């Protein structure tokens, strides 16, 4: 279906010739559905110089460019997955902003500087959509973030708007960069799009080296459930059908408390 010029660039000489019998079956199938392939007009061939393939064929090309883009982040994720998280702090500070906890020590920081962190945000929804608390963990330290109203012990208020200064810095002190913003960094979360919406730098027009991995999306594509299966799992008072036993052993709902 493509011009000879483009075909030869994409598939080169490694492509096997098309079986004549296969072509005949395709033509017969077109005629069967009322498509007369004999009555057509040829379009002129497209002469186009494509960029050089990154590999011996188009399949290898896309694999290689995907590997080039994802390899730094996969390396960070693997290191994070294989580490043991440091001990939890015995006492958390109520001071506003980020605080880093290592051993029995804590110190104020502009944002977590680590290249790979697990991240979660909590919002007091009855007070609006402003972030209230946040927590992050790396293989070296724990981090806690506290909002201004909470740190000051203010009484319950309703915040109708979320301003930029109310959001959480993850790559800056709020304005100035903390380290090289273009370096690969990865942030892991569950339903991470919710947490990501509370981060200051995610509203910049120019993107940085930070990428997000959503464990809920990963769970859904590996052990997620259909609408029928979701109904079965939620109807805990009813006895499931025997045919459901097999998938129930490897599937679950999407919430963090349900994911195995």
Number of helices in the DSSP assignment: 8
The helical percent reads: 25-40%
Order of helices and strands: HHHEEEEEHEHEHHH
Please tell me the overall pLDDT.
Answer: 90
Q: What is the distance, rounded to the nearest whole angstrom, between the alpha carbons of the first and last residues? A: 47 Å
Oligomer type: single chain
| Number of strand elements | 7
Structural class: alpha/beta
- Going across the biggest sheet, name each strand in turn: 2-1-5-4-3-6-7
Shape: extended
Question: What do these coordinates show?
Answer:
By secondary structure, the protein is α/β, with parallel strands linked by helices. Among the domains are: 4-82, no CATH class; 97-179 and 192-206, no CATH class. Helix content is 29%, strand content 15%. The protein has eight helices and seven strands. It has helices at 4-11, 20-32, 58-82, 148-151, 192-196, 215-223, 227-234, 245-248, and strands spanning 97-102, 105-109, 116-122, 133-137, 142-146, 185-189, 210-214. A seven-stranded mixed beta sheet has the order 2-1-5-4-3-6-7. A hairpin with a 4-residue loop joins strand 4 and strand 5 (142-146). The longest helix has 25 residues, at 58-82. The two termini are 47 Å apart.
List the helices and strands and how they pair.
Blueprint: H1 4-11, H2 20-32, H3 58-82, E1 97-102, E2 105-109, E3 116-122, E4 133-137, E5 142-146, H4 148-151, E6 185-189, H5 192-196, E7 210-214, H6 215-223, H7 227-234, H8 245-248
Parallel strand pairs: 3-6, 6-7
Antiparallel strand pairs: 1-2, 1-5, 3-4, 4-5
């Amino acid at each position: 279906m493509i011009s000879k010029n483009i075909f030869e660039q994409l598939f080169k000489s490694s492509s096997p010739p098309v079986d004549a019998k296969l072509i005949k079956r395709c033509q017969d199938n077109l005629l069967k559905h009322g498509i007369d392939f004999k009555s057509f007009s040829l379009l002129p061939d497209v002469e186009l110089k494509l960029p050089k393939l990154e590999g011996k064929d188009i399949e290898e090309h896309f694999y290689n460019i995907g590997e080039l883009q994802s390899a730094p982040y996969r390396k960070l994720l693997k290191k994070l997955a294989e580490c043991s998280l440091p001990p939890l702090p015995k006492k958390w500070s109520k001071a506003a902003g980020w605080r880093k906890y290592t051993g029995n020590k804590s110190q104020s920081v502009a944002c977590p500087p680590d290249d790979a962190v697990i991240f979660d945000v909590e919002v007091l929804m009855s007070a609006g959509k402003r972030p209230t608390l946040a927590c992050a963990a790396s293989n070296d330290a724990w981090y806690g973030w506290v909002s201004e109203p909470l740190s000051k012990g203010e009484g319950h208020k309703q915040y109708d708007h979320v301003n930029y200064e109310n959001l959480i810095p993850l790559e800056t002190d709020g304005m100035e960069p903390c380290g090289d913003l273009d370096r690969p960094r990865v942030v892991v979360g569950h339903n991470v799009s919710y947490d990501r919406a509370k981060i200051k730098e995610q509203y910049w027009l120019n993107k940085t080296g930070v990428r997000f991995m959503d464990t809920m999306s990963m769970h859904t594509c590996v052990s997620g459930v259909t609408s029928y299966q979701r109904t079965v799992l939620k109807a805990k008072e009813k006895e499931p059908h025997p045919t459901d036993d097999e998938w129930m052993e490897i599937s679950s709902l999407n919430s963090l408390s349900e994911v195995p």
